[in-house]
Design goal:
Elements (H helix, E strand, L loop, with lengths): L15 E4 L2 H4 L8 E6 L15 H18 E11 L2 E5 L20 H10 L5 H8 L3 H8 L13 E5 L1 H11 L2 E9 L20 E8 L13 H8 L3 E3 L15 H11 L5 E4 L6 H8 L3 E6 L2 H25 L12
Helix pairs in contact: 2-6, 4-5, 8-9, 9-10
Bound molecules: S-adenosylmethionine.
The site of S-adenosylmethionine has 22 residues, from helix 1 and strand 10.
Length: about 325
């Protein structure tokens, strides 16, 4: 049966979606009440909800949110952050040098050939050398200046950066300790697409789950999962879960199975689960299905509305399920959203 929680009027209520900025709203959660906070923040990929973000403002958001968790987590509670450790973003400061791919060369003029023309005709300018070799002036530039200098007229370079260390530091500074790290291995959806690259970089196929612990007693309840589930994923570091293919409602949903595993592993029935980056409501739905309470915060109105709709549906089918399982009078009421 779901536990009932009493809060003073100023505090956020459970089983409710709030539309607003988490940085201010988390402060309104009753201290020491959240058993688990599970979320996936903006990844600084230029999506609609992070268009204005700079790398620094994005880091500031993560730092603030993580820091605010210390107050609201129960002692012994967990903060689980799902994020791709390696992020890639356009960086104006990146030198604009591409890897060279000789097999792709449209023109077989080499640097040596250009140097030969230069020595034969020391007064020739770039246009004249290009005429002799029957190639473009850009080819002359590319071959002479490190082969693939883009000359500033192409897109800025992609900067690859690790962010897990920053997150760990923010948590540590806030009094939360890294407890574990799991890896979500997504299905290689790219395998069927026309994905190509002119680099030696790998395709990203995993995301990380950073699990932080607020010092305090916690329960290791082996009954949370079946024996089969413990073997299949409970004890395992790598979780293979297909990613959400149809991101119709929201551009960056994580799979319900991911939220479900985290919730069932780290909490008991009736606990409160927080998601301050609720998006389409996945964490809340997984919480409802696992008979936990939730608090959800989403900044963008249209996503908060989608989350509310999805949550209502989940509550409805959950109530329906419990009606089948229990006599009517034992049914627990959920707060109205
Ligand atoms: C990666 S998405 C989360 C998707 C979600 N896990 C799902 O399955 O639908 C991050 C969400 O955080 C929201 N967001 C970004 N900054 C926020 C803030 N300061 N406060 C609340 N929500 C925020 C975005 O609008 C976006 O919907």
């Amino acid at each position: 049966m779901l536990k009932k929680f009493t809060f003073n009027m100023e505090n956020l209520a459970v089983n409710t979606v709030y539309c607003g900025d988490s940085v201010s709203l988390i402060r309104k959660i009753s201290p020491n009440t959240i058993a688990l906070s599970f979320w996936s923040p903006p990844y600084f990929l230029g999506k609609e909800y992070e268009k204005e973000a700079t790398y620094d403002s994005w880091q500031e958001l993560l730092k603030n949110i993580i820091t605010l968790h210390y107050e609201v987590l129960k002692p012994g509670g967990f903060l689980v952050i799902n994020i791709a450790d390696i992020i890639a973003f356009q960086d104006e400061k990146m030198p604009r040098i591409m890897g060279m791919n000789p097999a792709n060369r449209k023109c077989d003029v080499t640097k040596d050939m250009i140097l030969k023309v230069q020595s034969d005709f020391p007064n020739y300018n770039r246009r004249q050398i290009a005429e002799v070799l029957k190639c473009s002036e850009q080819t002359i530039d590319r071959r002479l200046n490190g082969n693939n200098i883009r000359g500033g007229k192409y897109a800025v370079g992609t900067h690859i950066k690790l962010v897990g260390g920053n997150i760990e530091q923010y948590a540590y500074d806030a009094g939360l300790f890294l407890y574990d790290k799991r890896i979500w291995k997504k299905d290689p959806a790219w395998a069927n697409s026309k994905w190509t690259t002119n680099t030696l970089k790998s395709v990203s196929e995993t995301e990380d789950l950073y699990i932080f612990w607020k010092p305090g007693e916690y329960t290791v309840n082996r009954e949370r999962l079946t024996q089969g589930e413990w073997k299949e994923w409970g004890y395992r570091q790598i979780w293979e879960i297909p990613s959400v293919r149809a991101n119709k409602e929201h551009p960056a949903m994580f799979p319900k199975e991911l939220a479900s595993r985290v919730i069932r592993l780290y909490t008991d029935e009736g606990d409160i689960i927080l998601d301050p980056f609720l998006g389409s409501g996945t964490t809340a739905i997984a919480a409802i299905e696992a008979k936990r309470n939730f608090i959800g915060i989403e900044m963008i109105g249209k996503y908060a509305a989608i989350a509310k709709k999805n949550i209502k549906n989940a509550q409805h089918s959950q109530t329906f399920k419990s009606e089948l399982l229990f006599p009517k009078e034992e049914k627990t009421e959920l707060s109205v959203i």
